Amino acid sequence: MNIQRWIARREPNWQRLDTLLKQVEKKGLKSVRAQEIRELASLYRSVAADLARARTQQIGQTLIQSLQNLTTRGYTHIYQGSRRQEWRAALEFYRWGLPSVVQQTFVYIATATGLFLLGALVAWWYAWQDPTFMSLVVPQHLISQVRDEHKLWMGSIVGVEPLASSSIMINNLSVSFGAVAGGISAGAYTTYLMVFNGLLIGAVGTLVGQNNLAYPFWAFVFPHGALELPAIFFAGGAGLLLARAILFPGKYRRGDALKFYGSQAAQLVFGIVPMLIIAGTIEGFFSPNPNVPNPIKYLVGLGLFIFLVLYCNRKRR
C-alpha cells in the first residue's frame, strides 16, 4: 500500500470530521443540521475503519494517535447524544405516551378488570355457600392459620424485606407477562389468569372476612394493591389486544393487525414494569410494617390510586 497516497486520499475526511466535531463541541448538537448529523455519523464510521487499517499497517504512532482522538470524540458525541435522545424519549413516553395508550385501550383494560371482578364475585358467593370451596382455591396452610390461629401471614415478610420484595416483584412480573403472552392463545390463557386471580383474591378476602381479619388484611393490600392490581389489569388488556388481532383483525390483514395491536400492547408492558417494581417495594417494606398504623396504610393506598387515575387521564394540550 502506498501510504502517502492513502493518507492524501483519506485526509479530507479526517479534516471534515474534525470540523464538524469542533462545531458540536462549541455550539452543541442542535447547531448541526440533520444532513450534517448523517454526515457526521458516516464520517465517524469511515475514520474508525481508517484507524483499524492504520493499526494493521502500523502507519506511524502519531497518525494512529490522531485518528484515535478523532474516533473517541466522534463516539462521545454520536452515542452519548443518542443516549440522551433515548432518555428524553423515555421521559416523554411516561409523561404523555402511557396515559394516551391507556385511554386508547381502555375497553380492553376494562374487560380484563371485569374478568377479575367476576372471578372475585364467584369466589365470594361460593365461599359463603359451600365451605369446601375455599380449599379448592386457597392453600390449606393459610386457611388453617386464619381459622385456627386467628392471625394473618404477612408477618413472615418482616425481617426479610429485601428477599421478600424481590420475590414479589418476580412473581408479579411473571403473572403479568403471562397475561400478555396469553393473548397468543386467542386470549384463553389471559382470561384464565384474570379469572383465577380474581377467584384467589375473592376467596382470601372472604376467608379473612369470616374470621374478623378483614381490616388488617385490606390495610396490608391497599398500599401496594393500588398499583399492583391495575398493572395486572393493564397486562390483561395487553393480552386481549393480541387476542383481538388474532380473532378479529377487522380491516387489517392478520399480520398487520398483530403489528398494530402488538405495538399498543408493548407500550402497556413498558408501563407495567415500573408499576410492579414500585408495588413490590411497597409490599416488601411498607405494607407489612407493624410500626405503620393501618389508617396510614389505607390513606397511602387511596392516595396512590387517585394519583394513578389522574395520571392515566392526562391529555396533552
TrEMBL record:
<feature type="transmembrane region" description="Helical">
    <location>
        <begin position="105"/>
        <end position="127"/>
    </location>
</feature>
<dbReference type="Pfam" id="PF01944">
    <property type="entry name" value="SpoIIM"/>
</dbReference>
<keyword id="KW-1133">Transmembrane helix</keyword>
<feature type="transmembrane region" description="Helical">
    <location>
        <begin position="163"/>
        <end position="184"/>
    </location>
</feature>
<dbReference type="InterPro" id="IPR002798">
    <property type="entry name" value="SpoIIM-like"/>
</dbReference>
<feature type="transmembrane region" description="Helical">
    <location>
        <begin position="268"/>
        <end position="286"/>
    </location>
</feature>
<keyword id="KW-0472">Membrane</keyword>
<feature type="transmembrane region" description="Helical">
    <location>
        <begin position="229"/>
        <end position="247"/>
    </location>
</feature>
<protein>
    <recommendedName>
        <fullName>Stage II sporulation protein M</fullName>
    </recommendedName>
</protein>
<feature type="transmembrane region" description="Helical">
    <location>
        <begin position="191"/>
        <end position="209"/>
    </location>
</feature>
<keyword id="KW-0812">Transmembrane</keyword>
<feature type="transmembrane region" description="Helical">
    <location>
        <begin position="298"/>
        <end position="314"/>
    </location>
</feature>
